[in-house]
Amino acid sequence: MTQNQVRIGIIGIGNMGGKHAQHIIDLPNTALAALCESNPARLAALDFPPDLPRFSDYRAMLDNTPLDAVLIATPHYDHPDICLAAFERGLHVLVEKPLAVHVQEAERAIAGYQQARRGQPDLVFAAMFMQRTWGHWRAIKAMIDGGELGRLQRCSWLITDWFRTQHYYDSGDWRATWAGEGGGVLMNQCPHNLDLYQWLVGLPARVHGFVHFGKHHNIEVEDEVTAYFEHADGAVGHFITTTGESPGTNRLEIVGELGKLVYESAAAPMPDAADPDAAAAADGDDEPAAPEDLIFYRNTRSSVDEIRLSERGFDKVPYGREIVPYAPRASHGHELIIENFADAILGGAELIAPAEEGLNSVMLNNAIILSAHKRATVELPIDGAEYADLLAQYIAEPPR
User: Fold this and answer.
1) Could you give the 3-state DSSP secondary structure of residue 377?
2) Contacting residues for 212 by C-beta, under 8 A, at least 6 apart
3) Is the preceding peptide bond at 98 cis, omega within 30 degrees of 0?
4) What dihedral do alpha carbons 56, 61, 62, 68 form, nearest 10°?
5) What Å distances lie between residue 145 and 138, 140, 271, 297, CA to CA?
6) Beta strand 30-36 with 6-11: parallel, antiparallel or unpaired?
7) d(Cα 319, Cα 150) in Å, to the nearest integer?
8) How far is the C-alpha of 140 from the C-alpha of 35, rounded, in Å?
């Protein structure tokens, strides 16, 4: 590591790994030091400088290349083992979402990081939750943290714009399988949404999930989910998602005693299938840009106080409608996360997405599936071993 650049090796050069490599090349505070890909054809086809070290085994890369950090973009199940191998060698880690497939594995990765920090306190562990960089989520976070909504009462997210065809699922034998991905829409499409939910309003205390496996597609994992959350302070939450609706909806409502905050992604024109940038935007990689998509209905006084103090039976709390301004980010969200990761290593910058927080979205994911399986409300934190056993059961005999 120089004073100004972090040497990063990438493990996993699929669709995302290739994009990350270009971001590392473009950023001033990072240097692409090595590539690792287990697929020989993909490794041979990489269009990067020919003298860049290339490996088919990540351990060989970690042991034979001068590195400061690794970026992990492999299939989900591999994340914890690679994290631990990097920590054992004193390397910083940036890991793609999700941190792990289930709670027990996420906790194992975090425990390895905490142990490594005893000997290397400045070790950095970050997660690729790039949607935390998007302007509207940052604005919502600032309003909640600043108390503008007062005591929260409800958070409802209808996120059904993850439409996928059968062809998508048939394009890889690992897709939409318990053994290959560890789940369906919650594990593949919604880790960002689950992360944002807990980042904005916190983890619930109790979860009740309703899950349909292969309802819209010929797959073994979930493709439609409805979940009900109860928070310790009395607030409630709803999370509804599917890959079977078109056109879908992305609408978030957060209600507090001082008003209601509504974000709804405006419908975008259909992307040109020949345009990879348009396709990526439609797939959730880019921040949506739409006028008047974040609105605050601001109460003139507390609804809680109105319920308690009003001497009239049918009065409503007067409110105003405000369009909430926010600044869109200046560059690609993935690039911002990588830049922030390097800044944390070089100068101690605060991480946008500490990987330890990645446990929370895995916890929510697992709790919804576990609750649906048990047909009962489950309390958080869930028993990681119980879910690990359930996942093994689903791998052996997928639910129907």
Assistant:
1) coil
2) 222, 223, 224, 225
3) yes
4) -130
5) 10, 9, 36, 17
6) parallel
7) 14
8) 37
In this structure, what token pair is assigned to residue 162? Answer: 């993850």
Q: Count H helices and E strands in the chain, helices first.
A: 13, 15
Are 250 and 264 spatial neighbours (Cβ–Cβ below 8 Å)?
A: yes
Q: Is the pLDDT of residue 139 over 90?
A: yes
On the question of pLDDT at 272 being above 70, the answer is: no
pLDDT at 269: 52
Give CA–CA dist 254/260, Å, rounded.
6
The secondary structure of residue 145, as a DSSP letter, is H
Question: Which pLDDT score, from 0 to 100, does residue 41 have?
Answer: 85
Side chain identity, residue 48:
F
The 10s digit of each residue's pLDDT in 50-84 is: 889 999 999 999 999 999 999 999 999 999 999 99
- CB-CB contact of 26 with 86 (8 Å): no
Q: How many residues are given for the chain?
A: 400
DSSP character for 133?
G
Closest CA to 159 of 130, 205, 201, 192: 192
> Per-residue pLDDT for 282 more than 50?
no
Tell how far CA 148 is from the center of its chain. 25
Longest dimension (CA), the chain: 79
Which structural domains are found in the chain, ordered by start? Answer: 6-130+333-353 (3.40.50.720), 135-328+361-391 (3.30.360.10)
CA dihedral over 104, 105, 106, 110, signed as positive or negative: positive
How is residue 274 written in tokens? 């020949």
